[in-house]
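The freezer alarm interrupted the setup, so I double-checked each line after restarting. Inputs confirmed:
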Amino acid sequence: MHVIKKTITKEDGRALYYYHFPGTATAEEKQVFDKIEGEVEIIEEPEETADV
Amino acid sequence: MSELRWNPTLEEWVVTATHRQDRTFFPPPDYDPLAPTKPGGFPTEIPASAYEIVVFENKFPSFRPEPPQPSVEGSVLYPVRPASGVCEVICYTPNLDAELAQLPAAKLRELVRVWAERFKDLGDRPYVDYVYIFENKGKEIGVTLPHPHGQIYAYPFVPPIPAKEVAAARSYTARTGRNLYDDIIARENHDGVRIVWQNASFLCVVPFYARYPYEVHIIAERAHTSLKQMGTKELNDLAEALRVIGQKYNALWNKSLPYIMLMHQSPTTGASYDEYRFHVEFYPPYRTPEKLKYLAGSEAGAGVFINDTHAEDTAKILRDTAPLQW
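Predicted 3D structure, all chains:
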């Protein structure tokens, strides 16, 4: 399952990242996350990898 | 403010961060800075009224992406550098009385996913040479905020202990033609007596060379040097291992055991670190239910740890201790 990340900048310039997990979030968590205004990034499920 | 000062006698950097003297120190529960901000309530570090996992740059950082110039001028004897880097805080529960090992299994898997994402994001930055994920748990360790949280330091250099481990792994391969961590895993599986727990992807042992009585290392079975190289199954297996070890610690003396938990991963300099291996280390400070293991003269001044126990004995105790879920 993918993860959704929203990036905001706090008033003092510091970065803050909210991570949302659609598969397990409660209704309240989803509602709050949806209202956050920030840069959205979708993080896909990591692929299974071979030894490197 | 922060700056790096070179210690020429040990050839390592020391970070001065004078502003951290004023950091928040055990605030009352109503002023928990790591709680969500409730409508009309105290504005915490997290503006939203609920969160799943949130990461933010530390208000009192030792390293900053855009650091100030050092307060003193450097010299050949005493070089100085700006403290460039990042210090982040990770909050994975809005509950003040929660703890990592007692998180629902799915939540812990999500936290591991976030660690992997932060490793990649920070490690890709040109001014970062090493991403260090850790968690201090308990007042005995020196935490100043009781709300459970992890931290990430993104250093502008490779810190001494990981650098020494990388050098040792390379030296071992040069001498033997084999991988140091493959040989440690094979030896531990052969001996069996220091194994605490294992799953398909990770071996949990009190290492032969443990410095703390109940020190546990979680070592990746596969030749992966960082979270970035792991797939979902391996990340989930790591979450499971962390949960089991944390719950065994709590069951050991039927109390929430303090510890330092840290991850050793490959540096992010762009070089190859194939000889190295991802692993997690836990350092609980207690040697009995009431007695702490202090870092005193030999440990602090000479760098020689005196362990009052044998790894084989404490590993058996932890192996025989059933994880405690509460």
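Quick read of the result. Chain B has two domains: 2-155, 160-320.
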